[in-house]
Amino acid sequence: MQLFLLSFLVFLASLFAQTPESRTAEIEAAKDAKAKTLQPEKVSKAENFLRRFKDEKQLEKFQGGVNGFRPKIGNMVTGGGFAGGIEYGRDDFMDGELTARASAQISTRLFQKYQVEALFPKLAKDRLAIDLIASHRNFGGLNFYGQGPDSRRTGRSNYRLEDTSFDGIVGLAPTKLWKVGSSLGYLMTNVGPGTDRRFISSDRQYSEAIAPGITQQTNFLRYSVFTQLDYRDSPTGTKSGGNYVFQHSWYQDQELSRFDFRRMDIDLEQHIPFLNRTRRIMLRAKGTFTETDNNKPVPFYLQPILGGSDDLRGYRFFRFTDRNAVVYNAEYRWEIFSGMDGALFFDAGKVMPRRSQLNFSNLETSAGFGLRFNALNATFLRLDVGFSQEGFQIWFKFNDFLNSRRFGTNTLQPAY
Amino acid sequence: MKKTLYLLLAVGLVAPAKKFYTDDPLLVEPKNRNVPTVENRKLSDIYDLFSHQLTNLGERHPVNGPPIRAKAVNTLGEPMDGAWWERRHYYNRMSAEELKRGPGNENFPSMDGKWTIISAKNEGVTPGFTIRDSRKRLYFIKFDPVTNPEMATSSDSIVSRIFYALGYHVPENDVVYFAPSQLAIGDDATVMDKKGLPRKMTREDVDLIFAKVPMAKDGKYRATASLGLPGKPVGPPRYYGTRTDDPNDVVPHEHRRDLRGLHVVDAWIDHDDSRAINNLDILYKDGDTQYLKHFMLDLGSTLGSGTEVANSARSGSYFFSWKDSAKQLFTLGLVPPYWAFAKFPDLPSVGRFEWKVFDPEKWVPEYPNPAFRNRLPDDEFWAAKQVASFTDEDLKVIISTGQLSDPKASAWLLECLSKRRDKIGKAYFAKVLPLDRFQVTGDELRWVDLAVKGNYLPAATVTMQWFAFDNEAEKKTPLSGQTSAKLPLNSGKPFEGYYGMTISNTKNPKQTVDVYLRGNRVIGIDRNW
Q: Which one has a higher pLDDT value, B444 or A21?
């Protein structure tokens, strides 16, 4: 009724409207009319929430945690499922010279990881870093398909890997782009029956000859030297530059004197941008080679692996294992929009019992496509679909491909 | 609904019934209503991005029917001097000295005595301070990124002067050099820690900030000193709708000519970061009246600068559009966007700015802007004629205020601004009949063909037809035989009352300009295309 009355009044008003005397009067009348309907500016609840979320640095607070406690997501071995946990961390010890962290994580497949770290990241005017890490991992169902390039897809088994390590790493940066370093640590290992009941346990499927160390494990003193030349424009959202890493490690069997070995890791990556960095070619060659004296074996759980989201993307993770491995990756990326890139990739690689077999024959290959979701100049999520002669694999990863892991310790890396 | 009807009721009582009033054309906005107080309303940049990217904000042109012509203009089609804009360089040519002065380069922070730090922004790539000088004036001190010395500070200085000459309200931004010893920490100075919690500022915080910014050769630091605006900040104006608490804000922003035309200006200077939160409303006191005055801020993200880094090469393209993204996805990137072919000289103090692939018709800001999307050819013409009014000499003078130490950088900026200006002239003067500056001289109506003046296009061949105009009925009656520039005569005497001339482009008859006169005075201009 009220609305009807108002509408009628508007109609009447239009009939008896007074012609303003001037443009000024017309504009002033509009202002007068507006003045009668003034009300405080309203910002929607959603907008207010987002503004306060940013202004009050809620994300940083969430990441920073409460009194040093914060959630820790991911960073577990591939195949363990979604991992979550809690971390206590402080970066204000010794006037900010010391960062300390302790974390505990468990995954949906009940893989566990516990880690304590003390890091001096900015010694000697940021040219020296010292990292002390202790870690315990208990991965219940890692895959093992048998050793060698001819291992069968149907040979899938699983085993438990339990290890505890203590490592100290010293890294020196003589120049802005070049780093050298060394590590010293102690590694205690244990292998047991796999917990994934879908597949046979490795100890029931493979003998000591196929899987050295499956019946008896040992502890290692390990040390390494490494060097890195890194001139990527951004480590988290690389569009140009290169990263070349070399590490040589020595593993000394402390109990059985049976599994001493040396290991060499070479990881070379190059990013070639064009068309204003909206397109780029990424190339990577990575090799891991082990050697022993007197034909001693290398424990199967410390041998190089191939297959998975970070190398041969058309194969299951941990698909190939042997004493040596090489992988070559080429990826073409193009910008779909500012928050998403497309990717076409080709991977080739193989594992080999002997280094002399290093050549381009008998390579396992996979090819596929993917999407990379980017924010703040970093890829935070990627989807890869890789095809190989063994079918296809779909990978969702909360990191970028070629997101180089730190060298100097294995505790932050997936199990080798 | 009820409020709308009340408003209609109020407006209906004074509904207009004729085209011209005796006080047309108004050059200055009528006196503002007093605004006693307004709450400071803050906006979210994240919300702004997604709401503009994913929804249609503001009133758009009807799908069927005539488009909505720009409002907040006088009968000549010009915005009036007021809270948003003022006539400046195009209308009254500014001298080199005035261009250099811009909004006022006489208020550098005083070097007599220390600058007292009130607060600091210590996160991000380019940190900064808020200070008071010894004369108690407030300044925002902003630095360049280490990777691009002089880039953001020169852009801030140059573009604030360009915007000022174009008529917009901007703060005084000047390049300053100072030593860290110039700064004293205020008793209440705070910084935010990594978790966003405020804590008392220390000398280490100051040192940390200087460690993140480039040092000049003489050991001093270069920065932009942006003088605090004169009044209470009450939050950014949006590019659509009106402020519900401002009685003087009666025209939806998406229909304001000064905002629609800003698209052309932003394309010229590559201001792809043109979003609400980079502007600010100030409760401004003018005599006994307070009103909201609208300022353009944060101009350091222009001319190839992205403030914290060199601007992205994708500047001039939306972050996201369904069409372009689908094209890129399904062509596997084999059909790159036009901007991907841009080449940029290695000039860190400029960033990424170029003119060869620049296309004013393709350029868009980072995400859709309702006012920009509503622009019509007459809005573009209005802005383009202002852009074209800057000569190379004008630009050289303004660029000098950026105090770029590399002459190649200054030369490149001049080349880019000059060539981009010319592209704008060619693009937008072709979409309407580019005639302007109408006036009666002697017994003739005269005008300037801006496309010819700027050497952008050949002279348009036109036909002229005088008409008598019934102001009440808004009806034009052609005057037989009156088809020259000479003013029409009525029985041998000068025409009385309202009359006008329709000028038509012979090559494109849709392009016309109706010029209305009362006596010997031009009082109205209507452009059609």
A: B444
Of the listed ranges A35-39, B314-318, B426-430, B503-507, the least confidently predicted one is: B314-318
Q: Does B330 touch chain A (CB under 8 A)?
A: no
Give CA separation, A112 vs A136, A149, A310, in Å. 8, 30, 21
Distances B81 to A48, B101, B414 between C-alpha atoms, Å: 34, 20, 29
Coil, strand or helix at B205: helix
pLDDT tens digit string along B486-510?
999 878 888 888 999 999 999 999 9
- For the stretch B283-312, pLDDT in tens is 999 888 999 999 999 898 999 999 888 998
Fold of A57-121: N-terminal domain of TfIIb (2.20.25)
Integer Cα distance of A239 and A377 in angstroms: 10
pTM of the model: 0.87
CA distances from B232 to A20, B285, B291 (A): 34, 9, 10
Q: B457 is written with which tokens?
A: 């296009």
Question: Rg for chain A (alpha carbons), in Å?
Answer: 29
Burial label for B264, CB within 10 Å (0-12, 13-18, 19+), is buried
Does residue B430 have a pLDDT over 70?
A: yes
How far away is chain A from the Cα of B92, in angstroms, using its nearest Cα? 24
For the stretch B54-79, pLDDT in tens is: 999 999 999 998 999 999 999 999 99
Instruction: Return the CATH fold of A124-397.
Output: Porin (2.40.160)
Tell me the β-bridge partners of A242: A270
Identity of the residue in B5, B313, B332 whose CB atom sits nearest the CB atom of A7: B5
Contacts of B342 in chain A (CB under 8 A): 276
Q: How far apart are CA A258 and CA A217, in angstroms?
A: 10
Task: Determine the average pLDDT of the residues in B259-282.
Answer: 94
* Regions of chain A with pLDDT less than 50: 1, 3, 6, 10, 15, 406-416
Tell me if residue B318 falls in helix, strand or coil. Answer: coil
CA atoms of A396 and A381, how far apart (whole Å): 7
**Looking at the complex, does the CB of residue A197 fall below 8 Å from at least one CB of chain B?**
no
- pLDDT, tens digit (0-9, with 9 covering 90-100), for A106-143: 999 999 999 999 999 888 888 999 999 999 999 999 99
B307 min Cα distance to partner chain A (Å): 15
Query: Which domains does chain B show, CATH number per domain?
Result: 22-99+241-281+313-428 (no CATH), 103-233 (3.30.1010), 435-528 (2.60.40)
Residue pair B488/B482 in contact by the 8 Å Cβ criterion: yes
Beta bridge partners of A124: none
Q: Shortest Cα distance from B76 to chain A (angstroms)?
A: 13
ipTM (interface pTM): 0.88
Q: d(Cα A184, Cα A162) in Å, to the nearest integer? A: 20
* A 324-353 near B (Cβ less than 8 A): 332, 334-340, 342, 344
**For residue B524, what are the CA distances in angstroms to B382, B473, B476, B517?**
15, 16, 14, 7
Beta bridge partners of B119: B130, B190
Q: Among candidates B284, B280, B279, which has minimal Cα distance to B231?
A: B284
Output the six-digit token pair for A256: 């059985």
| Distance, CA of A174 to CA of B392 (rounded, Å) | 49
- Domain edges within chain A: 57-121, 124-397
